[in-house]
Amino acid sequence: MTASWIINEYLDPCTLPDNLADAFPPLVEPLVDIGYTPVLYCGHQIVNGTNYMLICKRVMLAPVFSTTLVKCIIHETLPVQGQRHYHILSMEELMNIR
47, 52, 63, 79: which has the fewest Cβ within 10 Å? Predict the structure, then answer.
């Protein structure tokens, strides 16, 4: 297909900072029939806590199998009673992988 991006569908998982590596799996686990693999750790932003930007390979298993690259922003709160919490701020589809 002319002018289509052909992205390496075998993108290897990237290494995340330890705290984010521990927090990421429980954040995406509840998303049924969708698998997320971080392939690029872009960096972080200090705000009221910390924002982290990742590029992930998203594989949807149902209703139709598809693979997409997405930009994922995760927020880590400031510690409250020694606890930090993480939540997904946004997921933006970048492109389908052919």
Answer: 63
Closest CA to 19 of 61, 94, 64, 79: 79
Q: Which helix (H) or strand (E) holds 45?
A: strand 34-47
Q: Whole-prediction pTM value? A: 0.85
Tokens describing residue 9:
């569908």
Residue with tokens 């429980």: 26
CA distances from 33 to 16, 28, 66, 88, 90 (A): 23, 11, 11, 18, 19
Q: Is the pLDDT of residue 1 over 80?
A: no
Coil/strand/helix, residue 30? coil
Coil, strand or helix: which one is 23? helix
Beta bridge partners of 67: 59
